[in-house]
Specification:
single chain, 523 residues, mainly alpha, two-stranded antiparallel ribbon, 25 helices, 5 strands, 3% strand
Length: 523
Amino acid sequence: MNPLRQARVKRVAAALCALGALLAGCAGTGGGPKAPASAAALPVFQRTDTLWLERVSFGIDSESVAELHHLGRQRYLERQLEAPDAPLPAPVAQELAALEVAHADPVRWLAEVGAEYKSINAMPDGTAKVEARKALNEHGNKLANEAIRSELLRAIYSPSQLQEEMVWFWLNHFSVHQRKATLRWLVADYADRAIRRHALGHFKDLVLATLEHPAMLEYLDNNRNAAGHVNENYARELMELHTLGVGAGYTQQDVQQLARVLTGSGVVNAGNPPRLKAEWQALYRRDGAFEFNPARHDFGTKTLLGHTIQGRGFAEVDEAVSLIVREPACARFISLKIATYFVADTPPRALVERMALTFSRTDGDIAAVLREMFLAPEFNAALGGKFKDPMRFVISAVRFAYDGRTITNTRPLVNWLNGLGEAPFGRTTPDGYPLTEASWASSGQMSRRFEIARAIGSGNAALFDAEDGGAAAATGFPQLSNRLYFEAAEPFLAAHTRDALAHASSQQEWNTFLLASPDFNYE
């Protein structure tokens, strides 16, 4: 074990030990049950296979382990990269289809919400006005909660695990916050139409899809960006956070010029399209709730990153995005961020450079960049040293503990992610959640993780209750000492984890110790 990895594991184990949790000696020497004996005649599975699969998915389950056995790493990876959107298990598909957000209609919803807000604002002050505003906000909250529920269930159960990982990665990279303006009505459509469709495609298409979505336009104020009233907020974040990164050589003038390019790109207003001059009518563009209004566009000539862009309408936006994403700085920035998420907090420079070269050579083919990374020797060498962020910890715990059983209540997961500080659509700033261990491994964080492990391990997490209350449909107690454990986890546990499991006084405590162990927190 390398010294850095060893020091990290010691810090995590020490935090858990302080809770009376894991290390040998912390649990005492009393008569707890030993871990059950290993099952016989299991397929040969290497520790690196388990860790590799942990990173190419949201965590192991029996189905993914069997598929990796059958296909091997390269064919498994190709199936994940080339066959996204595999059908969800029937119970999950039915659950998602019943949600209101499964039939999202941003154009209609924005029109209705705008009309309701206008009607409420016109009401005299009093109880009726307060109740009307409360009802409208509760409907928005319901839609946002359904969007989160959909993302969590897909992360747990989708056979297209790598696609779902990249959806989460890009939702974080192109982050929006549900509490701004009308975003609660938009985030489900944003995840499905702007992110999921392009998560494994070409980066330019992904940038344009987010640029043309009303959630991003409202969140970063480009719906207010018009000729004569230029708003630079989105242009700045598009360059700094989404494509080029800090210190990439662009200037404040480049930000201003990009903001001019983006004038007129906004959100459809209720009612008919705007009345336009004859020469502008052919330049008007509308796609769903996105609108490019030439009457609000600055048609002057711009200079962006040293290139002249002639004023001609939305075609300028396509040209500007093409210029930006083909910059070497963009290839390096995106490759570094992907490698930081999947490989190591400080990924090997040589690997990042090869990923960047692949990005440039393939015109931003995300799948090609991932293929370069997952099959690299540096990736294999880094296995076991990446600390799971809260999302990966929570989802991997549920995948491992219930191994395909369909939970019926995602509210505990939402509460856990809120408590750990990484709720979907919950980042208040546009920079997205951190990707490194330092942000997620404090003693307070580890204490919360232990309590989550206890809730799952004891079967008291209410994951099989009805989503909106009511009696549990099935027992929630997981049996973790099963074939999956013996095949893909037990042979590779560290000595201190084995000792802790041997000192467990009950199956519930054994489950808790396993899910809270450093072995489970690192991949």
